[in-house]
Amino acid sequence: MKVTKVGRAYPLSITQEHFSIEGRGLVREATLERYRADNDFAKKIPGEEERPHQLPSIYTHPPLDAPQQWGMTVDLNVCTGCSACVIACQSENNIPIVGKLQVAHGRAMHWIRIDRYYASRKPFDQDRGDWPEDPEIVHEPMMCQHCENAPCETVCPVNATVHSEDGLNVMAYNRCIGTRYCSNNCPFKVRRFNYFDYNQRPVGKKKIAGALSIYEEYFAPLTTKGAPDIIKMQKNPNVTVRMRGVMEKCTFCVQRIEEAKIAAHARAGASAETLIPRDSFTTACAQACPTEAIVFGDIKDPESRVSKMKKQDRNYRLLEYLNVNTRTSYLARIRNPNPKMPDAANIGVASLEEKVPE
Amino acid sequence: MMRTPAGHKVYAMAAEYPSAAALYEAAKHVRDAGFRRWDVYSPFPIHGMDEAMGLGKSWLSGWVLFGGVSGLLTAALVEFGPSWFLYRLNVHGKPWNFWTVPAFFPIMFELTVLFGAFASFFAMLGMNGLPRWYHPMFNWERFSRVTNDGFFLAIEARDPRFTESGVRELLEKSGGQHITIVHED
After folding, report:
1. A162 and B CB contact within 8 Å
2. Would you call B183 helix, strand, or coil by DSSP?
3. Pair B86, B37 in one domain
4. CA dihedral B39, B40, B45, B49 (to 10 degrees)
5. Are residues B92 and B122 in the same domain?
6. What is the pLDDT of residues A181-234, one digit of tens each?
7. Domain range spanning residue B71?
8. Are the Cβ atoms of A64 and B90 closer than 8 angstroms?
9. Residue B80 maps to a domain
């Protein structure tokens, strides 16, 4: 193989450009040795152990008092980063495809993204052009964490995103006026905005306008509106097709929850047995996950799969020190590197990264 | 209601003065005579004239305070009403009681400023008798010099101390020239 310098640049569209987890304990992992020495390592990773884990709140929170409360776990141990959840979510929830240019502009609309971080024993600082050497790659599916105290809700001037009593952070698309404040205030950056009418207008194609060639989405009102029938038939009829100017994000597949609820009520008839049977349905991402890394269910039911997952010692929640009280939690990754391999020292070190190097 | 011989309503009795200094002195005379409804007109602002005329503090600020307070109360009503009683929503896990008030500060501040600004604007118009299409002083042809080199003083007929002879005497004594009755329509 030969590599030659061609003297020109070619733009690549990627969704994750950040290298470091900035000491925020997003991905927590350890070698088997460390895990055996301290089973609870995930709960006291560096940078967070000095903070109280459940911060006192000055508020009395409104009750989340529905009989079933929804939650999710992602087991990083078995997640292979295959992105099947991303595609499953995209087809389940009618998420538009935005084209390469818009992805390059940071306008990708997948509700789940696979975060990719670099970990190495040598500290590095991306901002100063200080790159990690021979890093290990760690990845983590990231979607709406359904914070019980969701920072996105407080900044919405029209209350388009509020909480339901079963713990979902729900969006009222019709109410959204597209200020994008919620997206700016989301600590997880999981809210997606429909900049152009991706579902109705042609995107990602170049159009020649005089001497310029401009992507067609920028002519949006001048282009022909409407999707071909084949695309319309591909849409999930249970999910709203959102238009331009509306914020959207992971809903925990609220359409599946409601479907199960309706079915449970129909089965119950006059009796009071209206609860959805334990683990009888799941979200699209969990259903598609080949390793069953994603588990969804009722966290109020101690016997449900998700509750059992959350009881594991590897369970941790993201940005706990913000007191956002997320409903999605992650299970830390345990690695067992062969010490004879040359990069063994770089395995399982993502959460050793204590802070951003000075 | 005083009327001119031709049957017009009388607006004021006015006089012209040769200089700003003369107008300033005349204003002191009129102030000391106890008149309330009168005004001076000059091509430029005259320093110390408000004192010479005995003008007190403007109570526009009272209207602004009223506007600001009513804005604050309106904001409190439209925010606490729905989120406390009418339509409770779980937003950011914030409580359904008084302690959710920090979230309401921006609207409270904005409505206070908005209502205060509206109050100051409309109260200013009201207190100045604006908008008006025409001023009776323009019925006096000499008055057109007021934007050039004329200095005028007019005592309005609605002043309780207004009598034709008394005012004419006062204006003459204070050095006024071309003393005349200005009619209203």
Report:
1. yes
2. strand
3. no
4. -80
5. yes
6. 999 999 999 999 999 888 888 887 787 777 787 888 888 788 888 888 998 899
7. 60-127
8. yes
9. yes
Is some CB atom of chain B closer than 8 A to the CB atom of A271?
no
In order of their start, the domains of chain A are 29-346 (3.30.70.20)
Q: Does A279 touch chain B (CB under 8 A)?
A: no
Whether the Cβ atoms of residue A277 and residue A287 lie closer than 8 Å to each other:
no
Report the 10 Å Cβ neighbour count for B112.
19
Q: Is residue B76 assigned to a domain?
A: yes
Span A258-309, pLDDT tens digits: 999 999 999 998 888 889 999 999 999 999 999 999 999 999 999 999 999 9
Chain A contact for B89, CB < 8 A? yes
Tokens describing residue A38: 């301290």
Same domain, B113 and B162: no
Instruction: Answer whether A183's CB lies under 8 Å from A101's CB.
Output: no
Tell me the helix, strand and coil percentages in chain A, rounded to 5.
25, 15, 60
Residue A356 is predicted with a pLDDT of 42
Contact (CB<8Å) B97/A325: no
Cβ atoms within 10 Å of A234's Cβ, excluding its own: 11
- Same structural domain, B117 and B79: yes
Cα B83-B87-B93 angle, rounded to 5 deg: 55
Residue B94 Cα, gap to closest chain A Cα (Å): 6
Give the pTM: 0.79
If chain B, 185 residues long, is cut into consecutive pieces of 10 residues, what is the mean pLDDT of each piece? 78 93 93 91 94 90 97 95 90 89 93 97 93 90 91 92 89 90 86
- Same domain? For B74 and B87 the reply is yes
Instruction: Kindly state whether residues B51 and B64 are assigned to the same domain.
Output: no
Residue pair A328/A169 in contact (Cβ under 8 Å)? The answer is no
Nearest CA in chain B to A165: B90
Looking at the domain assignment, is residue B141 inside a domain?
A: no
- Residues B52 and B64 reside in one and the same domain: no
Give the residue ranges of chain A where pLDDT is below 70.
46-55, 352-358
Task: Give the total number of structural domains in chain B.
Answer: 2
B67 and B106 assigned to the same domain: yes
Chain-chain contact of B94 with A154 (C-beta, under 8 angstroms) = yes
